[in-house]
Amino acid sequence: MATEKKSVLIVEDDAALRKVLIDKLTSEGFDVFGAVNGEEGLKVAEEKHPSLVLLDIFMPIMDGVTMLSKLRGSNAWGKHVIVLILTNSIDAQTIAKVSGLGAADFMIKSEWSLDALVSRIRERLV
Questions:
Q1: Which intervals of the chain form a coiled coil (predicted)?
Q2: 6-44: string of b/e by CB count within 10 Å (b at 16+)?
């Protein structure tokens, strides 16, 4: 029986970074969806039900904290989907908020490599 292909939703307002992430994760064998802000990300998440959401915090229209809060309140799938936070900076108050909403991990953009990110995603999707 074939293993189900894992999917990742990248919610990131930086177009260049979003493209790099989509290209890398696609080349690593994931089905990848992209969104430019939390509002679009929430729509894509509810439609596609990805295996994991890679979520930026600071975005226009709807920020990542708001999107995560709405996602967790949306339905049974949204309450349990794995969410990794990938952001430029994060303060203790924001960490507390997203941790309370069930974010699985945090990565600061200046402190990661693509390979490290792929490894963390694979670890979470075992």
A1: none
A2: bbbbbbbbeeeebeebbeebeebebebbbbbbbbbbbeb
